Automatic annotation (TrEMBL):
UniProt-recorded Gene Ontology molecular function terms: alkylbase DNA N-glycosylase activity; DNA binding
NCBIfam families referenced in this protein's UniProt entry, alphabetically: 3mg, PRK00802.1-3
Keywords: DNA damage, DNA repair, Glycosidase, Hydrolase
Catalytic EC class: hydrolase
Domain of life: Bacteria
CDD domains on file: AAG
Residues spanning the membrane: none
Record GO biological process: base-excision repair
SUPFAM superfamilies reported for this sequence: FMT C-terminal domain-like
Annotated protein name in UniProt: Putative 3-methyladenine DNA glycosylase
Length: 244
């Protein structure tokens, strides 16, 4: 990849969407994400995380699909409307992980964004394994490489992430209880993104107003990337049975 040199100080300043499209030197692409990078609106962060890398214990995944959730105003984020022991990380500082269990058997990994007290998160929906292929192949059985992280539950299985990582600082890569090289979960910048490579649309499986792709086109992905998950609308609610 080629591009013009960019000052490190310039990379860390607050930036808007146009700034995200600038090319940067390869040497700066894999720097740790800064906490301040994640203080922008959650939809901007969701797009900016495309091409970033999430790594743990020798496995690195390049993020190819994300979804934004704005806890205070988003009809799809009702579970985040008030703090509980379970969702406390989302009300904390940006750059921390929020990991939750869903559908009875899937762990989902989110990046907390915005200022303290604002429960905005970006769900990491899909990615491409770029390091640790042997480890992921063992974890994912006979799945094809394109499917290793093709969906948020598959992504966490590939990384070996579960609920114990909720609240971990992804910027400093500190695991719960202190530094631990074997358990570190880290978020770093990755490949620069061009304007023609990113698509947006409705979030997967979201019911009601929050699933409206015109009002909430808050799913972001690399257009044409084979590791991106398939879109599925929310299943309709079952109709109550009427006694005969």
């Amino acid at each position: 990849m080629t591009g013009h040199p960019v000052d490190r100080d310039d990379l860390l300043r607050p930036i808007d969407r146009d700034d995200l499209l600038r090319p940067v030197d390869r040497d700066d692409l894999l720097r740790p994400v800064d906490h301040d990078d994640l203080l922008r609106p959650v939809t901007d962060v969701a797009r900016a995380l495309l091409g970033c890398h999430v790594s743990r214990a020798g496995v690195t995944v390049r993020i190819t699909e994300t979804e934004a959730y704005a806890g205070l105003t988003d009809p799809a984020s009702r579970v985040l409307s008030r703090p509980t022991a379970h969702n406390a990380p989302v009300f904390g500082p940006p750059g921390h992980a929020f990991v939750y269990f869903t559908y009875g058997h899937h762990w989902m990994l989110c990046v907390v964004t915005g200022p303290v007290g604002v429960p905005d998160v970006v769900l990491l929906r899909a990615g491409e394994v770029v390091e640790g292929h042997d480890v992921v192949a063992a974890r994912r059985g006979g799945a094809r490489p394109r499917d290793w992280c093709r969906g948020p539950g598959r992504l966490t299985r590939a990384l070996g992430v579960d609920g114990s990582f909720s609240g971990v600082d992804l910027v400093t890569a500190r695991h719960r209880g202190g530094p631990d090289a074997d358990e570190a979960l880290r978020l770093t910048t990755g490949d620069a993104v061009g304007p023609a490579t990113v698509a947006t649309g409705p979030r997967v499986g979201v019911r009601g107003p929050g699933g409206d792709g015109d009002a909430y086109p808050w799913r972001f992905w690399f257009d044409g990337d084979p590791t991106v998950s398939a879109y599925r609308a929310a299943a309709p609610r079952p109709r109550p049975r009427v006694p005969e």
